[in-house]
Amino acid sequence: MGQGVKKTIGMCAAAFTLSGCLSDAGGGAGDFVARMKSPDANSVARPTHSEKVNSESEIIQGLMNRRSALPSGSSFDRVATAVLAANSRAAESELRSARLRAEAASKNWLPKIGPQVSLTSLGSLVANLVIDQVLFDNGRKKGEREFAVADVEVAAVNLAQDTNDRVQTALELYVNAVEAREKAVLSEAALRDMSRFEYIMSERVRGGVSDMSDLNVLRQKLSEIKADQRANVEAANTAISELNAMSIEPLSGLRGVPAFKVKSSAATPLDVVLAEAEKTRAIAAAKVDRAGQLPGLSAGATVGSESDVGLHLSSDTLIGFGTGATLRAIEATKEAASRRVAQANEDANRQLRKMEGLIAAKQRQAAEAAQITRQAKANLDLFQEQYDAGQRQVMDVVGVYETFARQQQAEATLKFEAVQLQVDMARLLGVLADGDEI
Q: Given this model, what pLDDT does residue 30 score?
């Protein structure tokens, strides 16, 4: 028994050393020696596995280096900070799980040890300790480690997307609230002016100068303005209430929309980054699948009642006439992953060009609307002067005033549509929050 145990330990030690030479699944002899060295007083603390993955991953480093396009200290920045502080961050839990899986996979080159208990035909229990060390596996262990690291990168991109989506939702609610408030103020001013026209017309009807039909028309217009004003107030209150529900603090006191610019070259779109991470993961999965189709070599030992030591070939599947086609199909998944990256890049570029065109168009239309509003105000002032001079009727001034009020509303709509498009473009690029803060 003692000789068997010694032989088993010796065989396992030899297999453990040999695995560093034969298998690309684990570290070499230099790494093994480095692991076995005892730390001295001047040694520097080694980074954790997560820190090592973060420093070596270009995708994660790129995500961490992203800077927010929102002006610091602005109302947009305060909204983003408040909603992120209240974020449940379910995607963060997925990232943490992926990191733990990657840390576990980083040790898959070490031997596996476990008990083996069986019941003999005589009714007695036989307990053994089984040790297995992979010597050559066609790159399966390495592929598993690469897959686990790529899984961390995918989870990191998903977290960035989830965070940017949340900020985008919050900013859209805030912009809707600001737009509704501004339109409510415009409607309130129109209501005051139209009420003055209604009073003048009622006095003219009372004096027999004007017809009752004109007064009825004015009162109908007043009712429409009141309905629009109430609808805008309700829309603003609803948007703010929803925003406060996803924020850590009330944001009802915020006012105004800051001016900010987003360039398409600010960062790589997150959809493209996600496609790159998924490509790396798909290639790693293909490596694992390919290795599973081919036989591998491992050293095993059993210590206990029935001690045994030996080498054996293993494979997840039997080699058949279709194995070649299966291997070619696995290789084809790599090309498919590359094509998905190219497609994601094309789609993102098309969206960016579309958004750039829409933003430029909305900003131009808003500027034109502002110019038309000034012209409408000049016409209104002219008609008011002519009315005061007795050259115009009340309904003539009312018609010009309606044109002016509608143009004010149209200008506000175009202005905030341009802001919404800028927020959407920043979301596509993933620059609604600082990467290191995420």
A: 39
Burial code (b: 16+ CB inside 10 Å, e: under 16) for 162-199 equals bbbebbbbbbbbbbbbbbbbbbbebbeebbebbeebbe
pLDDT tens, 394-405? 888 889 999 999
Cα–Cα distance list, 242 to 29, 85, 248, 251, 256 (Å): 60, 16, 12, 10, 18
Nearest to 137 by CA among 264, 23, 6, 50: 23
- Say what the pTM is: 0.80
Q: Supply the pLDDT for residue 5.
A: 46
Q: Each residue of 193-238: pLDDT tens digit?
A: 999 988 888 888 888 877 888 889 889 999 999 999 999 999 999 9
Q: Which of 403, 410, 409, 412 minimizes the C-alpha distance to 375?
A: 403
Listed as ranges, residues in the chain with pLDDT below 70 are: 1-45, 116, 119-126, 304-323
- Please give the torsion angle defined by the CA atoms of residues 100, 102, 106 and 111, in that order, rounded to the nearest 10 degrees: 70
Q: Do 4 and 307 touch, CB atoms closer than 8 A?
A: yes
Residues contacting 97, CB < 8 A, separation 6+ = 155
Q: What is the signed CA dihedral for 231, 235, 238, 243, rounded to 10 degrees?
A: -170
For residues 23 and 141, the answer to whether their CB atoms sit within 8 Å is yes
Q: Which amino acid is at 9?
A: I
